[in-house]
Structure formats: structure tokens, C-alpha cells
Amino acid sequence: MTIIKSPAGSAVPLAAPAVGPGGPERQTGAEVTTHLDNVLPALESLRSQAGRLSEWGTELALRLLAGQRLLAAGNGGSAAEAQHLTAELVGRFDAERAPFSAISLHAESSALTAVSNDYGYEEVFARQVRAHGRSGDVLILLSTSGRSPNLLKAVRAAAERGITAWALTGPGPNPLSEACEQAVMVDAIAANAQEGHLIAVHAVCRAFDAEVARRAGAHAGTTRRTQP
């Protein structure tokens, strides 16, 4: 038992939390187990779309090797996931390789707040897409709801610039999945869909690195054959 002092200075016993049947420990355990169980539908949903994730990684590698750029954005937790993706490309995922151009549109705080202040938060990504994007670039947008107005406006800006737009969303169809050229929709509740997005990000990076390695190996083989 814990003893605390009352304002008058007398000792007051502080009761320990209830445990046992129906107590906090049992309830918390059940909640955690339920959360973990709900990850499984997200994984199964991703497994059924593994081909698309592989295609994204391969296509992204081909474009970035050709000098194009990845733009990524999301709100809240999805912003963190988008920034995770760009960090893997600018840094590295597994093996050593060259860095690639990838920008998280929500990460530059001065531009973010300036655009929000002058044009409204719904324009915060669209204006940056127009600033940084070039024809042939790729825009990846993450949203568990698929309904964020600022992401939908970013898709329209991408179309104006000839930029390919892909979406990672929660259950669909939803406005964002419908607006983008392609989408991977994780059929799970929001928290588990967001966890699925991180797995999807890593899957894309795995395919990306594999294609970069294949291209590097093919180039090395060609160089050896052409040497006198």
C-alpha cells in the first residue's frame, strides 16, 4: 500500500489498483489481444495486393534511376509513414546503394505554414506538387480514410503536371483511391490500416532495391563485355 500526505500533513493510504477478474490488467490484456488480432486482416489484405506493391517498387526504381523524383504526403500518422518512405530512398533500405530524390511535402515546416496561412490548409500539398513536381515524377499519398481534401487537391495538381499519383488508403473504394491512377487499399480499421501502410512501404522498398540491384548488375555485365 502506498502512503501519501494530505494537505494537513496526515498520512492517507492510497489503495492499489484492482486486479484479477474484470480488473484493469485483464481488460488491458484483452484490448491488446484484440488489436493484434485485427492486424491479421490488414496483412491478408496486403497479401492479396502483393503484385501491385511489387509493380510500384519496380516502376519507382525505373523512374528514379532515370532522374525522376518521388513526392509523398499524408496527414498525422500518415505523414510519418510518408516520411518513412522518403527516408528509405534518400538513405537506404537494406544494402548500400545510391541515394534517390524523394521529398515529403509535409516535412518543410516553413513552406507548410506559409502555404497554409496564405492559401488555406487544403492547398498545402497541391501548391508544393506544382512547385516540385515534373512530368514523369511519382506522387504517393497516404490516408486511412481516403477523404482528406488536401490530398485530393494534390492529386488534381499532379494530373496538371503529368505526375503519376498512387494512394495507400484504408478500406475502399474511397475518394482518394478513385482519384489516383492506382491504389492499395488496406481492408482494416484505421489503426491497423496504418500499420499495414508501414508494411506496404517496406514491401515497395524491397522491390525498389531489388530492381536497382538488377539494373546495376546488368550494367556491370554490359561494361565487362564491352571492355577490350
What does it look like?
The chain has 228 residues and is of the alpha/beta class. The protein has one domain (38-215): Glucose-6-phosphate isomerase like protein, domain 1 (Rossmann fold). 55% of the residues lie in helices and 14% in strands. It has nine helices and seven strands, in the order ββαααβαβααβαβαβα. It has helices at residues 24-37, 39-47, 50-65, 77-90, 109-119, 126-132, 149-161, 175-179, 190-226, and strands spanning 2-5, 11-14, 70-74, 102-104, 138-143, 164-169, 182-185. It has a five-stranded parallel β-sheet with strand order 4-3-5-6-7, sandwiched between helices. α8 links the parallel β6 and β7. α4 packs parallel to α9 (190-226) and α6 (126-132) runs parallel beside α7 (149-161). The radius of gyration is 23 Å and the shape is globular. Residues 1-7 have low confidence and may be disordered.
Q: Biggest sheet, strands in spatial order?
A: 4-3-5-6-7
Q: Looking at this structure, what is the CATH superfamily?
A: Glucose-6-phosphate isomerase like protein, domain 1
What is the number of strand segments? 7
Which CATH-level-2 architecture? 3-Layer(aba) Sandwich
The gross shape turns out to be globular
Task: State the distance separating the first and last CA atoms.
Answer: 84 Å
Quaternary form = single chain
Low-confidence stretches are 1-7
- Largest sheet, described in full? 5 strands, parallel
Query: Mean pLDDT, as a whole number?
Result: 89
Percent helix, as a range, is 55-70%
Percentage of β-strand residues: 5-15%
Radius of gyration: 23 Å
Structural class given helices, strands, pairing?
alpha/beta
Tally of alpha and pi helices: 9
**Topology order in helix (H) and strand (E) letters:** EEHHHEHEHHEHEHEH
CATH-defined topology: Rossmann fold
> Total domains, how many?
1
- CATH top level label: Alpha Beta
Keywords: Isomerase
Protein name: Phosphoheptose isomerase
GO molecular function: carbohydrate derivative binding; isomerase activity
GO biological process, one term: carbohydrate derivative metabolic process
